[in-house]
Structures are given as C-alpha cells and as structure tokens.
Amino acid sequence: MPKLRRRLSAVLTALLIGTAAPLVLPAQPAAAAPCSSYPNWVAGQWYNAGDVVRYTDGKAYIAEHGNPGYDPIISTWYWEPYACDGGSNPGNPGNPSGFVVSEAQFNQMFPNRNSFYTYSGLTAALSAYPAFANTGDDALKRREAAAFLANVSHETGGLVHVVEQNQANYPHYCDWSQPYGCPAGQAAYYGRGPIQLSWNFNYKAAGDALGIDLLGNPWLVQNDSSVAWKTALWYWNTQTGPGTMTGHNAIVNGAGFGETIRSINGSIECNGGNPAQVQSRVDNFQRFTQILGTTPGGNLYC
User: Fold this and answer.
1) Are the CB atoms for 263 and 245 separated by under 8 Å?
2) Max alpha carbon distance in the chain (Å)?
3) pLDDT tens digits, residue range 17-54?
4) 64, 103, 144, 155: which is the annotated catalytic residue?
5) Which residue, of 222, 240, 266, is where some domain finishes?
6) Catalytic site residue 144?
7) What is the CATH number of the domain that holds 210?
8) What is the C-alpha to C-alpha distance for residues 263 and 239, in angstroms, rounded to an integer?
9) What pTM, to 2 d.p., does this model score?
10) Coil, strand or helix: which one is 248?
11) Rounded to 5 degrees, what angle do the CA atoms 120, 123, 125 make?
12) What whole-number distance in Å separates Cα of residue 248 and Cα of residue 225?
C-alpha cells in the first residue's frame, strides 16, 4: 500500500510541475467538407466508385459502384448519402433547392395541385437536365421556368391530373411495329405525368435517356413524383415533337413561347388549329412570369 501511495504521489507531483507526459485527448473527427465543394451530378456521365457528387437536393452522394450517371436517389445500389456541411446556393440564395422558382412561388402557381406533384419531386428531377432554367441571365432562367410550368399547367389542368382522363384512348398508344413491342401490355402507355407522356416509343426513349426501365414499368411515371417530373423535363429539353426545336431552345435562343407550344401540340393548336388553347397557355405563361418577376419576351403565339 505505501508503494502505491508513493507512486500516486509521484504522478501528482509530476503533473503539478509539468513533467508528466501530456494528456492525449481522443482525435476529433474532421469537419465535413461543404456540399458545394463537390461537382454537380450530371445524368449520363460516367462515375467511378468513390466519386462524390452534389445532387439537386443540395446533399452529397458517393458512388458505391461505377455507373453511367444513374440518379443518386433512385439507385441505392450505386449511390449512398455522403456527409457534407451545408452548401452554397449561388443561383437563388433564398431557396435551398437552387431552383429559380421557390416553393412558395410554386404553390402560388398551383394552388389546387394534386399532392402527387411535389415541389421536392420537381427539384430532385432538375439534375437530369442541368441546363434547364439555368442558362443565360436570371431573367432568362426565370422565363424558361415559367414557360415550362405554363405548358405543364395546361396539360394537367393546373397539376391536377396525373393520368390521362379518357381511358378509351389507352389501347391506342401501343405501336406494335416497334421491335420491343409493348411488354407492359397494350393499354399501358397512356398519358402520364406533367407533360402526359404517352406511346410505348416515348416511354422507351425517355427511359433510356434517364436510365430507368419505363418501357417495362410505365407506372413509375404515375407513382414516383421525381420520375414523372423527369419525363417532362426529358421532353422539354430533348424533343422537338411536331415543331422544329425543343422547348428549351425556343426560350434560350429567343424564338419565343409560341414555339414551345408548337413543339408540344403543333398544328393541333398552332396556325389557327385551336386559338383558345393557345391563349390558355399564353395566359398561364404571362401569369407565371409575373409571379417570378421576369418578362415574357416576344413571339408568344404560334
């Protein structure tokens, strides 16, 4: 016992005079890097295992397996959440999503919308087409967002309808001449989502572009809000339809809102086909540009 006391006394004395070995505290974990320090995820770009990207929700994800730009929030096999700290939002500092349309503005545009059409679903879909509402100056970005949402509003009755209402049309949208046919069934490719995606060949093309099997599972468009919004953005950004340019190019290249109508419905509405429907779209567009604090530009009609 006396030996133990002497040893304790020696330790205390050493501590008091500063000769004892310094007390080593557990290492503190390094602070997470800012989310904004990681590159934005790009659909269709190859990623190796270990790559970290920033998704449109402002969060970071790490590739668990190499993949050709699959969506981080759809495929948990390929991506996992990755710790990061906050993040900057240079596009719209008051809006965490970075989208030029805030959630409050979105709700103002669509006061009676179906709960399926969530704002978070829209913002999650934006990463699939990063140029959308992100090209040119702020006024042009807002104009494109207004143009897209105006057409979407017209197609869905103000974001009320998720699926095409006339069920008698459903069997019509299967083109059996396509080599892949209609694996989900003849009546499975009816209009769905914000821009009412229809026909088996459109489901195939959209699914291929987005890395999702929409030909085999077209119901994803009516069951997953982000997928639904992505199909609308796919059409807007890549398809000319019956027109000569995409909706995106019509706005950013100055052709005007009228050309976005032509790319969606062509002569069914344009060139005197249905002036009332054209006017409905223009009215939506003008109202939405006011909400977003931008101008509609010229060439509103087709």
Assistant:
1) yes
2) 108
3) 333 333 233 333 333 466 767 888 888 889 988 888 88
4) 155
5) 222
6) no
7) 3.30.20.10
8) 8
9) 0.70
10) helix
11) 110
12) 21
